């Protein structure tokens, strides 16, 4: 019975690693507030705590933070704390597809395997509303998450993706 469990965990790890290797590279920078752009309803913004000094990370780094492969921010910013919406939300589905390159089952299997092997202590936290996500990120240095772009407030920073912020032509992180 124990041998079957180990084989299942190894299969999960191999599957998760295979999914990650198919990922592509983009640059992400902090978006400055601009009166000239209006976020579209179907766009997501990646947000971080305002005290985080990081303002430019690649998609590969973002994926490492979301996948708990990096536990501390580069250039300071403290311990990384990922916060996600609850399963079934369109925002979560979009992030699972675009950043994690996994479905819900793959996501759960990935973090189960990481916890089982001791590679992570903390899995992404879950919040049930956009205000709760924003509040958590605004209160916790090192926190990172996502919300609909039209629901961002001034208590958090918005990251640019590939040089583009929500509302700008060509912005890619959409529902």
Structure overview:
The protein has 175 residues and is an alpha/beta fold. The chain has a single domain, classed as Periplasmic binding protein-like II (D-Maltodextrin-Binding Protein, domain 2, 3-Layer(aba) Sandwich). Helix content is 35%, strand content 19%. It has five helices and seven strands. The chain has a seven-stranded mixed β-sheet. Helix 1 packs across helix 4 (104-116). It is globular, with a radius of gyration of 16 Å. The relative contact order is 0.25.
Give descriptors for this structure.
seven-stranded mixed β-sheet; 19% strand; 175 residues; alpha/beta; D-Maltodextrin-Binding Protein, domain 2; single chain; disordered N terminus; 5 helices
Q: Concise description?
A:
Residues 1-36 have low confidence and may be disordered. The chain is 35% helix and 19% strand. The longest helix is centred in the N-terminal third of the chain and has 20 residues, at 2-21.
| Helix amount | 25-40%
As for the number of domains, it is 1
The average pLDDT value, as a whole number, equals 79
Tell me the strand order in the biggest sheet: 3-1-7-2-6-4-5
* Estimated structural class: alpha/beta
What's the CATH class label? Answer: Alpha Beta
């Amino acid at each position: 019975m124990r041998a079957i469990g180990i084989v299942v965990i190894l299969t999960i790890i191999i599957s998760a690693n295979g999914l990650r290797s198919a990922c592509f590279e983009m640059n992400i920078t902090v978006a400055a507030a601009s009166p000239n752009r209006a976020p579209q309803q179907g766009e997501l913004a990646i947000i971080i705590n305002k005290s985080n000094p990081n303002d430019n990370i690649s998609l590969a780094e973002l994926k490492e933070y979301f996948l708990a492969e990096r536990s501390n921010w580069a250039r300071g910013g403290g311990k990384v704390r990922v916060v996600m919406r609850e399963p079934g939300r369109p925002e979560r589905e979009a992030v699972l597809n675009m950043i994690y390159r996994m479905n819900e089952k793959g996501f759960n299997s990935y973090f189960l395997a990481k916890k089982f092997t001791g590679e992570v202590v903390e899995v992404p936290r879950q919040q049930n509303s956009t205000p709760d996500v924003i509040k958590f990120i605004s209160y916790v240095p090192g926190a990172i998450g996502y919300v609909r772009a039209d629901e961002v407030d001034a208590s958090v920073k918005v990251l640019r993706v590939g040089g583009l912020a929500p509302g700008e032509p060509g912005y890619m992180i959409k529902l």
